[in-house]
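## retry 2 of 3
previous attempt timed out at serialization; input unchanged, resubmitting
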Amino acid sequence: MKNQVSSGQAGIIKESPRIVSRRNFISSCGCCAACAALAPATLLSSCTSAGSKKGKMKIKVIYSLHSTVQNQPDWPNTGFDFAPPMEKINNALTKNFRDIQFIPILATGPEDAGNIVLQDKTDPVDGYIVYQMNCWNRVIQTIAKTGKPVLYADFQFGGSGGFLVYTSAFLRENTTNIGFVASSDINDLLSSVKCFRKNPNEGFALAVADVRRKLTPAPGNVQVNKDDLKTLSAEECIYRLGKSRILAVRDQNAGVAEPLAGIPIEFIPFSEVNEAWSHADKDESRSVAERWQKNAQSVINVPFTTLETSAAMYLGMKKVLADHGANAITINCLGGFYGGHIHAYPCLGFHELNNEGLVGGCECDINSASTMLAFSTLTNGRPGYISDPVIDTSKRQIIYAHCVASNKVFGPAGPANPFTIMTHSEDRQGASVRSMLPVNFLTTSMQINQERKEILLHQAVAVGNDPDDRACRTKLCAEPKGDIEKLFTMWDKWGWHRVTFYGDLKEPVTAFASAIGFKVVEEA
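## retry succeeded, writing output
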């Protein structure tokens, strides 16, 4: 999603000993468009209650987001009201740090961030807390360049994608004034705020990292169930991949791309998929929809007509695959749907394809689709689960979140786990699945990069499913094996997506990588 940068002037909240009206409050913020969107009591009380005693440390709290009430599809979801969580954060800060004045403000992107820094030159602050509330708003980059201590925090299931990508870039650059918090426990944030008192500038990142490590639980003694995974030899897998084909639906253009990890890639236009959808047999579509409705634990806010159009998309994709002799398809689903090029989300169709041993991949992410196909082939049909991960140090977990997931993680002939049919999370439209994936099994998450000839890999034990309504519907919680701190370091080079398989794939993937001249990079 593109960031929406306010054209208004972003200002600061001036110190004032009096309680101000909402109109005066906005005026004191320089009439910025972001602050004008605030609910009447969202930030006022926490701002004024901090007081303005001379000599008090001043920390500006910048919320990086589109608007107080989200008006576009993005994490957490359209219509999400950020006012209550911002109020909770502000109240916790002022309650626990009476010796610090916190100055809350919104910023939508670089322009707002630049205006904040400019005004802080005449009314200086001692440091910043930047909360990534939506994923890709670029505010932290400008604030980081001030050289002042900055505590960068993830609003989980809201800003996690940008937070992980931007944090890993800071770590790669060894940015010493940026400390970060990735925790669902607000006490971890409060413990990190204490570092402002003791560690100016260059020592700040190390001080916050020390706090984070101390608060992260030690690895648990998690039960791991037996998994009778059987894999192909690297040579047989390579042979089968050479006979495979991925269809990539990015726009209205067609053509052939260079193979990825030995897999042929063909681009086809939206129009071909849409035509196949429109000609899908109505009776067969209804039958598939009825089966989905029967097999799901429940269907929430999705009318039967939407199930029918989703089933028609599934049947249309099957036809397109057959026409091209392909066994994998990945579609720019949101671009196609919002652009009017396709008229049903492919989420349920992807779910069904993955259950059948084929590949349905999200967002026309060819690297992820190739990862799904390569290791589904290697594991005799186990589906890959493409996801947008979130890291929560307070639980020592990585949470794999997406609106497409199989419910047959051990392959087409394996047992099925429960699933619920719901709307696509970001925009509350269409139909997707919340799959309650099995726990107490080892998983292996990967991503292929053709350009660098590398395969990224980490492993984790599945421990639960998070039902949080924010962000994508399926959220598999897992405890990573290895160093969770290292798990923060690769996102800027590899992007946000990972593809998770059930089973211990480390040795067979290493053998496969060696056979095709690739290197395995372990990220934990």
